[in-house]
Design brief:
Elements: E1 19-23, H1 28-39, E2 43-48, H2 51-61, E3 65-69, H3 75-89, E4 94-97, H4 112-141, E5 144-151, H5 161-180, E6 186-193, H6 206-212, H7 224-235, H8 237-241, E7 246-249
Parallel strand pairs: 1-2, 1-4, 2-3, 4-5, 5-6, 6-7
Helix pairs in contact: 1-7, 3-4, 4-5
Bound molecules: ligand L4XM7KOE and NADPH dihydro-nicotinamide-adenine-dinucleotide phosphate.
NADPH dihydro-nicotinamide-adenine-dinucleotide phosphate is lined by residues 23-24, 26-30, 48-50, 53, 71-73, 98-101, 121, 125, 149, 151, 193, 195-196, 198, 200-201.
Protein name: Peroxisomal trans-2-enoyl-CoA reductase
Subcellular location: Peroxisome
EC number: 1.3.1.38
Length: 283
């Protein structure tokens, strides 16, 4: 197994001896975060539901990475994920709550089950992982950092109102947990991410993808490694001083702008289509 290439921007050994758990660490932004954390010296445990995806990422990162399969929406799985990290390494310094998502849909077309599915993943799953990490690892150790990754809801996500509400809830939980767990030596911060160039964007309708980079004032999408840098910064001693903060990384674009319905997204009847269902095998 190879050792990770050193970080391009952080001092060697910044996170030496630390152990990080990254949910959704097999793909996209989670993979970028895990890669940079390893480059800074951390041991990283990446979690998700698909073993083959996790194994491929762990092989890319090298000996610093290990995998644990599980669904953060399931209490037993979530506990096993945290316990596996602890059993493997004897400590857990950083939890990156990165697993999350939603589907693109006009607000009035969201079924109750869809609303609940998005909350179950983004709010309940994030809460469960944070509470387990605190109870089982961080409070007993008297220290730890939790980084919650959200899809920035700061302009209101008109085509993803379920996620808009869920991500705002996570940002509010971040501030509340930072206060609640400060006496335990635990810092809690959030990253409000804008549009990043990951495979996940492939699922959005073609007109969305085609136009999206041009709408960012920076004139480009965020790069996953830039997100990884921010996660590593928040894992550093500076992150502890930033507890309770939401850091926005969005190229000055956020995730929404303009009127509803968005002119580029309406079909011939003036309606905005709902994202296609994912094939059952990937759910
Ligand atoms: C002018 C401005 C334009 C801006 C445009 C911006 C758009 C680009 C944004 C780019 C930013 C990127 C953001 C990202 O977050 S990228 C990462 C994305 N990754 C994911 O979203 C992956 C994870 N997502 C999911 O797993 C699912 O979306 C979900 C959260 C729903 C999964 O939950 P679950 O597995 O429990 O869900 P089910 O599939 O079982 O469905 C449960 C119910 O949910 C409803 N549903 C789900 N999908 C759809 C759909 N496509 N259409 C309609 N309804 C849906 C439905 O009610 C399901 O119940 P039923 O099965 O009974 O029908
Ligand atoms: N790409 C972008 O532009 C942006 C993304 N974000 C957010 O950043 C995070 C990562 O996004 P990105 O990498 O792009 O997208 P991905 O869809 O690639 O990442 C989602 C990850 O979470 C895992 N996951 C999903 N559901 C669960 C679950 N129930 N239990 C455990 N793991 C789960 C997935 O793996 P598996 O399916 O194997 O479980 C996958 O690795 C998400 O929260 C996303 O909403 C925010 C802003 C912009």
């Amino acid at each position: 197994m190879s050792t990770p290439a050193p970080s391009r921007i952080f001092a060697p050994g910044l996170l030496d001896g630390q152990v990080a758990l990254v949910t959704g660490g097999g793909t996209g932004l989670g993979r970028a975060a895990a890669t940079e954390l390893a480059a800074c010296g951390a041991q990283v445990v990446i979690a998700g539901r698909r073993a083959e995806v996790l194994e491929a990422t762990a092989a890319r990162i090298g000996a610093a990475a290990s995998v644990v399969c599980g669904d953060i929406r399931d209490e037993d799985d979530a506990r096993r994920i945290v316990d596996t990290a602890l059993e493997h390494h004897g400590r857990l310094d950083l939890l990156v709550n990165n697993a999350g998502g939603q589907y693109f849909v006009p607000a009035e077309a969201i079924a109750t089950r869809g609303w609940q599915a998005v909350f179950r993943l983004n709010v309940d799953g994030t809460t469960r992982m944070a509470e387990l990490a605190v109870e089982r690892a961080m409070r007993p150790a008297g220290r730890g950092t939790i980084v919650n990754v959200t899809l920035s809801p700061h302009h209101g996500l008109a085509g993803m109102t379920h996620s808009s509400a869920a991500r705002a809830a996570v940002e509010s939980l971040t501030a509340a947990w930072a206060r609640q767990w400060a006496a335990d030596g635990i810092a809690v911060v959030a990253i409000a991410a804008g549009h990043f160039q990951t495979d996940a964007l492939d699922k959005y309708p073609e007109p969305v993808r085609a136009g999206v980079a041009r709408t960012v004032p920076l004139q480009r999408l965020g790069q996953p490694h830039e997100h990884g840098w921010l996660v590593a910064l928040l894992a550093s001693p500076l992150g502890r001083a930033m507890s309770g903060t939401v850091v926005t990384l969005d190229g000055a674009r956020d995730n929404w702008f303009g009127p509803w319905p968005p002119p580029t997204l309406t079909d011939g009847d003036g309606d905005v289509p709902t994202e296609e269902r994912r094939p059952a095998a990937t759910r």
